[in-house]
Design goal:
Blueprint lengths: L3 E3 L4 H8 L6 E2 L14 H19 L4 E11 L2 E3 L5 H11 L3 E11 L5 E12 L4 H9 L20 E5 L2 H5 L3 H10 L6
Amino acid sequence: MSELILASTSSARRALMDGLGLPYRAEAPGVDEVVSPHLSAEDAVRELASRKARAVHQRHPEAWVLGADQLVEVAGEILSKPEDRNAARVQLGKLLGHTHAIHTGVCLVGPGGQVHEAVETARLGFYALSAEELERYLDLEEWVGCCGSYRVESAGQALLERLEGDRSNVQGLPMVTVVRLLRRAGFRFF
């Protein structure tokens, strides 16, 4: 089987991939992540995942490259990564006590231009927090580099009142979908 490359250096995505036991390496895609504001959240993550996978595949055309991207959507508004603590506070203020969706696009590009794509969506309900509790959560800096300003693989799991969907999707890489795409491409496990 050809080499497998994860087009991401995200520690959360690498931890999820490590759990599969497949040999792979991670490489930063180095792409522009700006998309048309007219795209739906699902179309935006699909485009960004494809852009990341194709950028790395262009450098390694004989490899299989897995790209992913995610966005949070609440009340029709798309939330990406916050620029600073204040932006994280504003984002979490929109999520706390409410339900939101997290969309993750996945794209697997292989030799000869083979492409397998999917978008997974999970729905999350967050507890309402006091202003003091919110500030203590912000002190943990889990908001850094995370769309929606939280991480469910750490202390942020205490924000969750309910979760509908694949928890690994919320962590950055929907592993049920990833395994399906890899199997479709001919990868074998165990």
